[in-house]
Structure formats: structure tokens, C-alpha cells
Amino acid sequence: MATTFYWNDTDIRDKAPQNTEIIISNIYRPLRKPVTRHKVEIPGRAGSWDFGGGVEMDFPVSVDIVITANDSAGVMSCAAAIEGELTGKGALKFSDRETVTYQAQTFSEITLTPEGAGNIARATIEFECDA
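Predicted structure:
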């Protein structure tokens, strides 16, 4: 079974209208959350002093998708369904790590890149996840 993602407990592939398909081609996510660092350079002393930090930071997760349909109208219908689903903040999960839930939101645009005869398009969905 291919890896997919769930937005508010709904498999995004289930949002594809009839005669269209959403394929997840790549997922870019950190293995661990980034943390802050607090280093200070003190004049007259060699190197910098590390005062810790370790506070988790917000981080990006990107998902590359491919939309296939019978024609370009089907591709656009599927894209509209995805766009309508990914509004606001929600719970983001992936099928290969269902025990991990991210609180996420999309801020940047989702740009479709048509391929072939217009019945295939690629896009990258960028989520910003809370620490």
C-alpha cells in the first residue's frame, strides 16, 4: 500500500472525484523536530558559549502529489477538492507513522504543473507544523 496522508482523519485520496486519482509521490518531513540553540560569543574568550535552548520550533512538511484524470477538467475538479479540504489548521498524519499527529496549516499557494495532454498535473503541498 502506498503512503498517504490524512487531514483531520480523512485520507486525502478519498477526496478525489470520480474518474480522478491522487498519488502521493514524495513526502519531506523531519525525523525529529528542530530545536532552538542559544549560543553567545563573549568578547575576549575563544569560541562561543552554549547556554542551551532546546525549545522545539515550528517546521515544514512538504508532500508532492500527482493528479490523474480523464481530461484537464477532471484534474481541475480534483485540485479544487484538495484546495477546499486543506483550509485552516488541522491534524496531519501519514499512513506509515499513524501514531504521530502534527498540528499543521498550509500558508503558501499550491501550484499545479500540467503534464502531457493536460490529464496529469503535479503539485507540492507545503504544511507548516506547530512545534
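Summary: The domain at 5-129 is CATH 2.40.30.200 (Elongation Factor Tu (Ef-tu); domain 3).
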